[in-house]
Amino acid sequence: ETGVTQSPTHLIKTRGQQVTLRCSSQSGHNTVSWYQQALGQGPQFIFQYYREEENGRGNFPPRFSGLQFPNYSSELNVNALELDDSALYLCASSRDNWDTEAFFGQGTRLTVV
Amino acid sequence: AQSVTQLGSHVSVSEGALVLLRCNYSSSVPPYLFWYVQYPNQGLQLLLKYTSAATLVKGINGFEAEFKKSETSFHLTKPSAHMSDAAEYFCAVSDRGDYKLSFGAGTTVTVRA
Fold this sequence. Notes:
heterodimer; A: mainly beta; seven-stranded mixed sheet; B: mainly beta; six-stranded mixed sheet; five-stranded antiparallel sheet; 11 strands; globular
Protein backbone atom coordinates (compact mmCIF):
# COMPACT_ATOMS: atom_id res chain seq x y z
CA GLU A 1 0.00 0.00 0.00
CA THR A 2 1.49 3.33 -1.10
CA GLY A 3 1.32 6.13 1.43
CA VAL A 4 0.68 9.83 0.86
CA THR A 5 3.48 11.42 -1.15
CA GLN A 6 4.12 15.12 -1.71
CA SER A 7 6.37 16.97 -4.12
CA PRO A 8 8.59 18.82 -4.04
CA THR A 9 9.98 18.42 -0.52
CA HIS A 10 11.52 21.89 -0.47
CA LEU A 11 10.89 25.01 -2.52
CA ILE A 12 12.12 28.60 -2.51
CA LYS A 13 10.05 31.29 -4.23
CA THR A 14 10.14 35.04 -4.49
CA ARG A 15 7.39 37.27 -3.14
CA GLY A 16 4.69 37.81 -5.78
CA GLN A 17 5.35 34.55 -7.59
CA GLN A 18 2.98 31.61 -7.92
CA VAL A 19 3.58 28.07 -6.67
CA THR A 20 2.02 24.64 -7.22
CA LEU A 21 2.40 21.85 -4.69
CA ARG A 22 1.43 18.27 -5.46
CA CYS A 23 0.03 15.39 -3.46
CA SER A 24 -0.65 11.76 -4.31
CA SER A 25 -3.24 10.27 -2.01
CA GLN A 26 -2.97 6.86 -0.42
CA SER A 27 -4.31 3.99 -2.50
CA GLY A 28 -8.08 3.63 -2.06
CA HIS A 29 -8.55 7.15 -0.66
CA ASN A 30 -10.82 9.65 -2.43
CA THR A 31 -10.50 12.63 -0.09
CA VAL A 32 -7.57 15.02 0.24
CA SER A 33 -7.13 17.84 2.73
CA TRP A 34 -4.43 20.51 2.79
CA TYR A 35 -2.96 22.13 5.88
CA GLN A 36 -0.50 24.97 6.43
CA GLN A 37 1.92 24.64 9.34
CA ALA A 38 3.84 27.81 10.14
CA LEU A 39 7.04 27.47 12.14
CA GLY A 40 6.33 26.66 15.78
CA GLN A 41 2.57 26.30 15.26
CA GLY A 42 0.04 23.57 14.72
CA PRO A 43 -1.31 22.85 11.24
CA GLN A 44 -4.22 24.97 10.00
CA PHE A 45 -6.87 23.62 7.65
CA ILE A 46 -6.82 25.19 4.17
CA PHE A 47 -9.41 23.13 2.28
CA GLN A 48 -10.58 19.65 1.43
CA TYR A 49 -11.33 17.98 -1.89
CA TYR A 50 -13.73 15.08 -2.23
CA ARG A 51 -14.28 13.36 -5.58
CA GLU A 52 -12.77 16.33 -7.46
CA GLU A 53 -14.91 18.99 -5.75
CA GLU A 54 -13.95 21.42 -3.00
CA ASN A 55 -15.74 20.13 0.08
CA GLY A 56 -14.91 22.80 2.64
CA ARG A 57 -12.51 25.65 3.22
CA GLY A 58 -10.72 27.20 6.15
CA ASN A 59 -9.92 30.85 6.73
CA PHE A 60 -7.57 31.34 3.77
CA PRO A 61 -7.84 33.95 1.00
CA PRO A 62 -8.89 33.04 -2.57
CA ARG A 63 -5.29 33.16 -3.79
CA PHE A 64 -5.06 29.70 -2.20
CA SER A 65 -6.76 27.34 -4.63
CA GLY A 66 -6.71 23.66 -5.40
CA LEU A 67 -7.59 20.86 -7.72
CA GLN A 68 -8.29 17.18 -7.40
CA PHE A 69 -7.85 14.86 -10.34
CA PRO A 70 -9.77 11.70 -11.35
CA ASN A 71 -7.06 9.55 -9.74
CA TYR A 72 -7.67 11.59 -6.52
CA SER A 73 -4.25 13.21 -6.53
CA SER A 74 -4.35 16.90 -5.73
CA GLU A 75 -2.63 20.23 -6.25
CA LEU A 76 -2.43 23.29 -4.04
CA ASN A 77 -1.83 26.56 -5.87
CA VAL A 78 -0.86 29.78 -4.20
CA ASN A 79 -0.79 33.03 -6.19
CA ALA A 80 0.87 36.34 -5.33
CA LEU A 81 3.10 34.77 -2.68
CA GLU A 82 3.68 36.70 0.53
CA LEU A 83 6.46 36.29 3.06
CA ASP A 84 3.93 34.92 5.57
CA ASP A 85 3.15 32.05 3.21
CA SER A 86 6.46 30.50 4.23
CA ALA A 87 5.45 27.28 5.97
CA LEU A 88 5.28 23.50 5.79
CA TYR A 89 2.32 22.48 3.63
CA LEU A 90 0.83 19.14 4.57
CA CYS A 91 -1.46 16.98 2.52
CA ALA A 92 -3.66 14.35 4.17
CA SER A 93 -5.81 11.71 2.55
CA SER A 94 -8.69 9.68 3.92
CA ARG A 95 -10.87 6.88 2.63
CA ASP A 96 -13.91 9.09 2.41
CA ASN A 97 -15.04 12.57 3.41
CA TRP A 98 -16.69 11.20 6.57
CA ASP A 99 -13.63 9.21 7.65
CA THR A 100 -12.08 10.48 10.87
CA GLU A 101 -8.64 9.04 10.17
CA ALA A 102 -6.38 11.12 7.96
CA PHE A 103 -2.96 9.97 6.72
CA PHE A 104 -0.42 12.73 6.25
CA GLY A 105 2.39 13.12 3.76
CA GLN A 106 5.83 14.36 4.75
CA GLY A 107 5.03 17.89 3.63
CA THR A 108 6.49 20.53 1.33
CA ARG A 109 8.63 23.20 2.97
CA LEU A 110 7.94 26.49 1.14
CA THR A 111 10.19 29.47 1.75
CA VAL A 112 9.19 32.85 0.31
CA VAL A 113 11.97 35.42 0.08
CA ALA B 1 -15.74 26.18 16.19
CA GLN B 2 -13.91 23.49 18.07
CA SER B 3 -10.49 24.26 19.54
CA VAL B 4 -7.89 22.58 21.70
CA THR B 5 -5.36 23.96 24.13
CA GLN B 6 -2.14 22.12 24.83
CA LEU B 7 -0.65 23.06 28.18
CA GLY B 8 3.11 23.36 28.01
CA SER B 9 4.99 23.99 24.78
CA HIS B 10 7.99 21.97 25.98
CA VAL B 11 8.23 18.90 28.19
CA SER B 12 11.51 17.30 29.25
CA VAL B 13 11.55 13.84 30.80
CA SER B 14 14.18 11.32 31.77
CA GLU B 15 14.38 8.04 29.91
CA GLY B 16 12.12 5.58 31.70
CA ALA B 17 9.98 8.28 33.32
CA LEU B 18 6.29 8.97 32.78
CA VAL B 19 5.34 11.12 29.82
CA LEU B 20 2.23 13.28 30.36
CA LEU B 21 1.03 15.72 27.71
CA ARG B 22 -2.05 17.80 28.44
CA CYS B 23 -4.85 18.70 26.07
CA ASN B 24 -8.16 20.42 26.79
CA TYR B 25 -10.91 20.97 24.27
CA SER B 26 -13.66 23.55 24.10
CA SER B 27 -17.06 22.10 23.34
CA SER B 28 -20.30 21.31 25.10
CA VAL B 29 -20.74 18.28 22.84
CA PRO B 30 -18.02 15.62 22.98
CA PRO B 31 -16.08 15.83 19.73
CA TYR B 32 -13.67 13.46 18.08
CA LEU B 33 -10.18 13.82 19.53
CA PHE B 34 -6.79 12.84 18.17
CA TRP B 35 -3.13 12.81 19.10
CA TYR B 36 -0.53 13.05 16.35
CA VAL B 37 3.27 12.86 16.52
CA GLN B 38 5.64 14.71 14.22
CA TYR B 39 9.31 13.81 13.94
CA PRO B 40 11.75 16.37 12.54
CA ASN B 41 11.25 17.07 8.84
CA GLN B 42 8.37 14.61 8.62
CA GLY B 43 4.61 14.70 8.36
CA LEU B 44 2.13 13.79 11.09
CA GLN B 45 1.54 10.25 12.29
CA LEU B 46 -1.65 9.30 14.13
CA LEU B 47 -0.97 7.96 17.63
CA LEU B 48 -4.56 7.39 18.71
CA LYS B 49 -8.10 8.71 18.39
CA TYR B 50 -11.28 8.96 20.46
CA THR B 51 -14.58 8.68 18.59
CA SER B 52 -17.03 7.86 21.42
CA ALA B 53 -16.20 4.27 22.20
CA ALA B 54 -14.07 3.47 25.27
CA THR B 55 -12.89 6.54 27.18
CA LEU B 56 -9.42 5.04 27.63
CA VAL B 57 -7.83 4.82 24.22
CA LYS B 58 -4.68 2.85 23.52
CA GLY B 59 -2.47 3.84 20.64
CA ILE B 60 0.81 2.95 19.01
CA ASN B 61 4.24 2.99 20.63
CA GLY B 62 2.82 2.42 24.13
CA PHE B 63 0.84 5.67 24.30
CA GLU B 64 -2.67 5.97 25.68
CA ALA B 65 -5.10 8.80 26.37
CA GLU B 66 -8.17 9.16 28.53
CA PHE B 67 -11.23 11.16 27.54
CA LYS B 68 -12.71 12.98 30.54
CA LYS B 69 -15.91 14.79 29.69
CA SER B 70 -16.21 16.46 33.09
CA GLU B 71 -12.77 18.02 32.65
CA THR B 72 -13.01 18.50 28.84
CA SER B 73 -9.60 16.85 28.68
CA PHE B 74 -7.80 14.27 26.58
CA HIS B 75 -4.36 13.93 28.11
CA LEU B 76 -1.73 11.67 26.53
CA THR B 77 0.47 9.41 28.65
CA LYS B 78 3.21 6.83 28.30
CA PRO B 79 4.44 5.00 31.41
CA SER B 80 8.10 4.83 30.41
CA ALA B 81 9.76 7.28 28.02
CA HIS B 82 12.18 6.08 25.37
CA MET B 83 14.74 8.17 23.53
CA SER B 84 12.77 7.58 20.31
CA ASP B 85 9.79 9.44 21.84
CA ALA B 86 11.57 12.76 21.34
CA ALA B 87 9.31 14.58 18.88
CA GLU B 88 6.51 17.14 18.66
CA TYR B 89 3.04 16.07 19.68
CA PHE B 90 -0.21 17.63 18.53
CA CYS B 91 -3.67 17.28 19.96
CA ALA B 92 -6.45 17.77 17.42
CA VAL B 93 -10.23 17.94 17.46
CA SER B 94 -13.04 17.68 14.96
CA ASP B 95 -16.78 18.04 15.28
CA ARG B 96 -18.74 14.82 14.89
CA GLY B 97 -19.56 14.47 11.22
CA ASP B 98 -16.98 17.08 10.25
CA TYR B 99 -13.77 16.36 8.43
CA LYS B 100 -11.71 19.38 9.42
CA LEU B 101 -9.08 18.91 12.09
CA SER B 102 -8.26 21.81 14.42
CA PHE B 103 -4.84 21.40 15.98
CA GLY B 104 -3.27 22.68 19.15
CA ALA B 105 0.02 24.55 19.09
CA GLY B 106 1.99 21.41 19.89
CA THR B 107 4.22 20.15 22.69
CA THR B 108 7.87 19.36 22.07
CA VAL B 109 9.13 16.39 24.06
CA THR B 110 12.81 15.92 24.84
CA VAL B 111 14.07 12.76 26.53
CA ARG B 112 17.16 12.91 28.74
CA ALA B 113 19.44 9.90 28.97
